[in-house]
Design brief:
The complex is a heterodimer of chains A (179) and B (253). In chain A, 69% of the residues lie in helices and 0% in strands. With 179 residues, chain A is mainly α. The N terminus of chain A is likely disordered. The N and C termini of chain B lie far apart (57 Å). Classes of the chains: A mainly alpha (179), B mainly alpha (253).
């Protein structure tokens, strides 16, 4: 078993270049969703690549190299956002902020724009709410892992997740004409 | 009544204790409406989370490749030096560490020097001589500004030596500049100067290209010229900003 794990350890630069060619789009898009900033997302991917390269001897081979770098990139994205001072993005409860406009029969085209408005709904989330929601719902991280990455408690992460869901639901219900 | 939050945590299989999880599982099995509510909730959130992927710009991809190649090169270079010199003090890690420490030490010294010089404002009658006047925001900005000026000038000086350096020496020089530049990029990030951080960060791929022994001379010269130009522009802007706005505005490059 040990030999098997050893054999999966990516020692060569080629294995890194191969996974970079194949999967960097996925890493970049995941970081972009978290940061909403193309430059920060690109920096996060670069940091992740360099960290993974530097620590490749620690890579135990249980996961794929792609998954490992993906996770490091998301952590790097959160870290870069934190370094760029959390107060630049207001961590206020935006429940009182206006939701997406109500659906109306004459506004047919609105439904086609649902994709855009869901993106708008995501914009109403604070950085912590967005991170908590995306890392949980899309990336499948454990609440404890998210909290550790955010440098907060599991309960704070859980509450941020609930607030995110509440805000997203308000916008989605408005667009469905349920409110 | 089971809340949406509980339904969601049950779906995630996380954040509920064993008893809560079992209770919700039983309720879901017994109540089709509840199961439907959970599915609707999850589907809605799936839609919210789903965003179309964007293509990675080719330039970014090149930058990532170059970083990886540079990291691998630096490692090989360090290993080679270690083998030849077999000395802790000759190792790349030590040199990079020493360079970084030197930068921090120098920046701190400059900062402290400026700080102590500005503690007493000559001619300010509202503050008797010997009574320190603390101007924290201004001092911080000045310290940062002087450090940045030093970094830009130092980078320019080190780049001037690149042309005459041989392969290994050139790599070592560039590694040092990259490490130093990285430090100031982090400082710019922390000072909430994203534009400045971005400009400094954009130096990295050019520097990495300069360190590459396989880079053709024409390409090397072009990269060096570009970097020198960028450095001069930044220094000029910084000097202008310093003379017109000696406070925090000077960093709005």
């Amino acid at each position: 078993m040990f030999a098997f794990l050893q054999s999966r350890r990516p020692k060569s630069e080629d294995s890194f270049h191969a996974v970079l060619n194949e999967r960097s789009g996925r890493w970049y898009n995941a970081c972009l969703r978290i940061t909403r900033d193309a430059d920060l997302a690109a920096d996060a991917v670069q940091d992740a690549l360099l960290k993974a390269w530097g620590k490749r001897d620690d890579f135990r081979g249980e996961a794929e190299l792609d998954t490992w770098i993906h996770r490091i990139a998301l952590n790097a994205a959160i870290d870069l956002m934190r370094r760029r001072r959390p107060e630049t993005e207001e961590e206020i409860d935006t429940d009182l902020a206006p939701a997406a406009p109500a659906a109306s029969p004459e506004n047919q085209y609105a439904n086609r724009a649902l994709g855009n408005d869901l993106a708008t709904a995501m914009q109403r989330l604070t950085a912590m709410e967005r991170q908590s929601f995306l890392l949980k719902h899309l990336e499948g991280w454990r609440l404890g892992e998210i909290a550790e990455s955010q440098g907060t408690s599991v309960n704070n992460t859980k509450q941020a997740l609930f607030r995110a869901v509440r805000k997203l639901r308000v916008d989605m219900d408005v667009w469905r004409g349920e409110s | 009544m089971i809340s949406d939050n509980e339904l969601l945590l049950h779906h995630y299989g996380d954040g509920l204790d064993e008893a809560e999880r079992e209770k919700i599982t039983r309720e879901l099995a017994a109540q089709p409406d509840l199961a439907m509510r959970q599915r609707t909730l999850v589907a809605g959130l799936d839609a919210a989370a789903c965003a179309p992927n964007v293509l990675v710009p080719a330039e970014m991809h090149r930058r990532w490749r170059a970083s990886l190649e540079q990291a691998a090169r630096s490692e090989k270079s360090a290993a080679s030096r270690d083998t030849h010199r077999a000395s802790l003090f000759g190792s790349f890690q030590w040199r990079t560490g020493a360079a970084t420490f030197g930068v921090v030490l120098l920046a701190t010294s400059i900062g402290l020097g400026i700080y102590s010089n500005r503690d007493v404002v000559p001619g300010d009658v509202s503050h008797p001589a010997g009574v320190p006047v603390r101007t924290v925001g201004l001092d911080d900005a000045s310290r940062y500004e002087r450090g940045l000026q030093w970094h830009l000038a130092s980078t320019e000086r080190q780049l001037a030596n690149l042309g005459s350096a041989d392969g290994d020496e050139r790599t070592r020089l560039v590694d040092r500049v990259i490490a130093q530049n990285r430090l100031y990029t982090i400082a710019a990030d922390r000072a909430n100067e994203p534009r400045l951080a971005r400009v400094l960060r954009s130096f990295t791929p050019i520097l990495e290209n300069l360190a590459d022994n396989h880079t053709e001379k024409r390409e090397f010269d072009a990269g060096l010229s570009q970097l020198n130009f960028e450095l001069k522009v930044m220094q000029a802007r910084l000097a202008t900003a310093t003379s017109t706005a000696p406070t925090a505005q000077l960093l709005a490059l």
